[in-house]
Amino acid sequence: MTKFFFVLCLSLVFSLNTATAQNYSTHQVKKGETIESIAKRYFVTPFDIFSLNPDAKKELKPNTILIIPISKALKPKVTTVRELKGFITHKTKRKETLYSLAKQYSVTEEDIKKHNTFLYANPLQKGDKLQVPIFKTTKVVEEVKPTKKYKVLPKEGKWRIAYKFGITIQELEALNPGLEETLQDGQEINVPNIEDDKKNEIDEKYSYYKVRPKQGFYSLKRELGLEQEELEALNPGLKESGLKKGMILKVPFSSKANGIIQVDADRINLVDSISDYKTKHIAVMLPFRLNRVNHDSISGTKQSIVDDPYLNASLDFYSGVLMAIDSLKKLGISLKVDVYDTKNQTSEISRIIDANNFETVNAVIGPLTPNNFEWAASKLRNFNVPVVSVIGSNLKLGENGFQSKPSDGLLKEKIVNYVKADTLSSNIVIISDSKHAQVANSLKQEFNHAKQVYSRKDEDGKEANYVLVDDIREVLKPGNNIVFLETKDEGFASNVTSILASLIQKENIEEKKERIDIVLVTTNFNAAFEGDEIKNPHLSKLQFTYASASKAYNENDNNVFVRAYEKAYNVTPNIGAVKGFDLTMDVVLRLVSSDDLYTSVNDAPLTEYVENKFGYQKKLLGGYYNNAVYLVKHQDLTIVEVKP
């Protein structure tokens, strides 16, 4: 027993020492005190106290010891006020000095001189009669509130403000109940009342990362490649506070993390930020290949469109561009638009650039195909003209290149992080065909305890693209199961999804059945999941979840663009038309709300339109990559966005 108490005491001393090292103090609760009154006393928020003392949410008993974080908030200013109440006559004795008299009567030497002016010219002598002032001293405490009002700056969102004032996004939201996701320019919100020199400034040379629930330094090292000491050096105060959910960390850009090491940026509506109404000059390069079109008859022209996939894709995209130009003009924006037919040839692109003056062009949209895009961007690099891609997710970018489609690696990272952040204890299963064994194995490295299931082989050892019910049943567990399905084969996808949907079961005590829930995910959403063999009810039942570069618009939303497009073309816009509209709107609105497309990357960290969103980040050596992706899932036979 003695040994037990000795160990307990050591543990208590260690914990108290740790609390002291981490800038914490303690408070013994008195009768009648509330969390709010205690928070006010120590200049912290109730959220701060609850985060360190979760039991206090249930009941706050007298004599309870609370751990209180030392606040950065301004402390009360205490000033001393003196009121002259009268005088004492003092006859100077031998060896007395002004210093000794001032000390004796708790006044200053200047106080004595001020009321005995002869002392300014003559030294103090024995027998001098002095009028010594008597003051009533009171201390005035200037009340300083732990929070203050702050006006949101243009294009400033939650994460920037949270980082600036050294709090988490959750703490900012706790200070402002009901705070909307998107903040408005000039909106007044509550923030910690701290000294200006203690605020954190956003350094645009760095990225910023939001800490996920239950994330530790080891997890951050795996994801960001940064040691704990490196993170603490970049983020003063991290060593004392430790990691907290929603905390914003400053990190260097890392190609290892494929550009995802940034916070979920705050969406900005650039229509509200238009500041430059000078004419903007853009160029659109697409492979119409009009030289191949049969112009002899309408039927011949229609057949050319059907037969030529490049012309088909170009016309879809360009129809969206035209709708965007019309919308931008209605906003009062003046545009000069040059449209070029690249014929899908690098030689034609070179001819176009050599034959025209691109020095006045503010941005180029296109060319369509990756190799033509890279060629055009390299040719225009000397003019410092930004070139924005239409498609292509793994482009080689120079300093002037903008990849508008998020990379495949980013999509994979998004869904993997989503599964990792799942707060419920889940059983992970990875199902794949042999062609996707490499992806399956990489997932196995991310989830060490995951179970793997491969497509069965036929008698000749060839891929049979199916699994049996028992293959899957034996790897599932009662409770929550998350299943990765990695394939591009529609038949295999149909086989697996139908089996998984059949294995979901509710708890039934009488029949001794345990609950089995299954969520289906994939790192690569492709045509295999959209084929005729796939049943949407199965996908909805499985809450099929994946990361996507775009999010299909909801036909019930009465979207202005969709209505206008249907009126103009008598057909609903497809994905290519919507991308043409979204991309053109984004490029031009960035140009009229910032100095140029390059500076808009920092001015507008995240924008969103009908189906696409854009959040560019520059690689250290190279161009700008769109890191904004959607996380969507099938729900009630519709596709909805998964909110963080």
TrEMBL record:
TM stretches of this protein: none
Top-level taxon of origin: Bacteria
Pfam families: LysM
Entry keyword set: Signal
Signal peptide: 1-21
Keyword Signal applies: yes
UniProt protein name: LysM peptidoglycan-binding domain-containing protein
PROSITE patterns, per database record: LYSM
Native organism: Snuella sedimenti
Residue ranges annotated for the LysM domain, each copy included: 25-68, 88-132, 148-191
Keyword flag Signal: yes
Database matches in CDD domains: LysM, PBP1_ABC_transporter_LIVBP-like
Gene3D superfamilies, per the entry: 3.40.50.2300, LysM domain
InterPro entries listed in its UniProt record: LysM, LysM_dom_sf, Peripla_BP_I
PANTHER family linked: LYSM DOMAIN-CONTAINING GPI-ANCHORED PROTEIN 2, MEMBRANE-BOUND LYTIC MUREIN TRANSGLYCOSYLASE D
